[in-house]
Amino acid sequence: WTMDKYKNIAGGSNVLAFEMGVDSITIMFNSGAIYLYDYQSAGEYHVEQMKRLAKSGEGLNGYIKQYVDGNYAKKFA
Questions:
Q1: Contact 62, 31 (CB under 8 A)
Q2: Per residue in 15-39, pLDDT tens?
Q3: How far is CA 2 from the centre of its chain?
Q4: DSSP letter, residue 54
Q5: Which secondary-structure segment (H or E) carries 17?
Q6: How far apart are CA 24 and CA 10, in angstroms?
Q7: How far apart are CA 28 and CA 45, in angstroms?
Q8: How far, in Å, CA of 50 to CA of 45, rounded?
Q9: Buried b / exposed e across 39-73, counting CB within 10 Å, b at 16+?
């Protein structure tokens, strides 16, 4: 897996790294768990918001908890 390190600007995030696909985002958390969110599981709007937050390095963990918790396509590890 070639994932980009999440900047975690505010500190305290559970997100460690991410990888963006055309219609998906894969996120690795500090626990080592990796989740794939795609348009079908989380919706196009939420996936694109997660991509934007991942790039900015801030707010991704909170967004997932608030809007897409449990709406993942696949869990790894």
A1: no
A2: 999 999 999 999 999 999 999 999 9
A3: 14
A4: H
A5: strand 15-20
A6: 24
A7: 20
A8: 9
A9: bebbeeebbebbbebbeebbbbbebbeeebeebbe
- What is d(CA 67, CA 2) in angstroms, rounded to the nearest whole number? 26
Predicted local distance difference test score (pLDDT) of residue 2: 86
Q: What whole-number distance in Å separates Cα of residue 2 and Cα of residue 9?
A: 21
State pLDDT tens for residues 29-73.
999 999 999 999 999 999 999 999 999 999 999 999 999 999 999
Residue that has been written with the tokens 């963990």 in this structure: 61
What span, in angstroms and rounded, lies between the C-alpha atoms of 40 and 12?
Answer: 29
Q: Which amino acid is at 25?
A: I
